[in-house]
Amino acid sequence: MIDEGRIAEADRNELAEVVKWFDRILPGGCVFGSRLPARAIFWFKASHHEIVQRAWQLVNLLKRHEMPIEMIKTDRPGRVVYEDEMQIAAVPWSVTPG
Known about the structure:
three-stranded antiparallel β-sheet, alpha+beta, 3 strands, elongated
C-alpha cells in the first residue's frame, strides 16, 4: 500500500501511529526470538479491550484501501505455547481425517 503510493499522507500517518503502538505494547524479541513452534499462531484476547480497539482501527484503515481482511474467532485455538495479558500463541490441533 505504502510502496505503491496508494495511501494518502493522513492515512500513512495513522498507519505509522498504529504500527508504532503495536511495536511498543507487544512483547518483542523475548517472545519472537524464543523457540516457539513454527506453526504457532498469535491470537489477541477479546478481554483486552485496548488491543482489540487498536486492531479494529488497523482493520478499518486497511479496508479503506481495499486490503483483504479476515477475522477468525475461536474458543479452541490449539495447544497454547505462549500467553500474556493481551495475546496467546497456540499450535493448532491436528486435523484427523474423518
